[in-house]
Amino acid sequence: MNKLVETILDHRSIRSFEDKLLSKEQIETMVLCAQAASTSSYIQAYTIIGVTDPEKKAALAEIAGPQTYVEKNGHLFIFCADLQRLQRAAEMENADVTEALESTEKFLVASIDAALAAQNAAIAAESMGLGICYIGGLRNNLPEVSKLLGIPKRVIPLFGLVAGYPTNPSAKKPRLPLENIYHENEYQSDPGVFNEQLEQFNRTIRSYYLKRSNGLRKDNWTCQMTAMLGKKLRLYMKDYVESQGLNKR
User: Fold this and answer.
1) According to the model, what pLDDT value does residue 1 have?
2) What confidence category does residue 71 fall into, taking pLDDT thresholds of 50, 70 and 90?
3) What is the pLDDT of residues 133-170, one digit of tens each?
4) What are phi and psi of 73, to 5 degrees?
5) Dist CA 46 CA 31 (whole Å)
């Protein structure tokens, strides 16, 4: 156990921030830490957009929920999968790499690169005493997000990351049992064992929700996930991604 591990294990999403902007040094430190993340074949297939314009932040907050903390925070970062840079690189070398850029593999690589970079930035922020929250709600309307941010072809805004000085920190949320997540040598597929682990977690998360809501919320994890999956959510995504020249083959 060390300070970094303690910081990682103490993570919780923060959705309420002081009215105080991050300093240029803090922002640059987070971006430099993002850049230090592992990247497939050194391609660094992501771009980070910092949004400071109040009108743009308000519009993005509305798209995301509305979620007021997308507008009111210390800084808003947008993480994008970016293969446009690779296209430019190939053009500089007089090469046609269209087939590779349109592949599902490169779309996965860019998405993974962006996620790894974002998590480095998040841990850096938390190590500085800041709070963070990921904003997947931007995917509610990526065409509008792209218009607001001037996103070119071969680029997809994947999610936002807000950071700032926390107010009213939430309780740490339980995670699935370690043995349900970590399997050795092969996938543990015994349904009896698997279901018992999920039932154990259901009891844990139900207790968490009851305590957090003063007895008003009584659902559990499997119920919550089933309800979420029953919603027709962001079904435009395949067409949008392909229209940006990604994941086409």
Assistant:
1) 87
2) very high
3) 999 999 999 999 999 999 999 999 999 999 999 998 88
4) -160, 180
5) 12
Which tokens is 174 given?
């339980």
CA distance 168 to 18: 10
Question: What would the two tokens of residue 131 be?
Answer: 């709070």
Structure tokens at 30: 């987070």
Instruction: Determine the pLDDT at residue 49.
Output: 98
pLDDT band at 174 (very low <50, low <70, confident <90, very high): very high
The predicted model scores a pTM of: 0.95
Q: What is the DSSP string of the chain?
A: --HHHHHHHT--B---B-S-PPPHHHHHHHHHHHHTS--GGG---EEEEEE--HHHHHHHHHHTSS-HHHHSSSEEEEEEEE-HHHHHHHHHTT---HHHHTSHHHHHHHHHHHHHHHHHHHHHHHHTT-EEEEEGGGGGGHHHHHHHHT--TTEEEEEEEEEE-BSSPPPPPP---HHHH--SSS----HHHHHHHHHHHHHHHHHHHHHHTTT-----HHHHHHHHHTS---TTHHHHHHHTT-S--
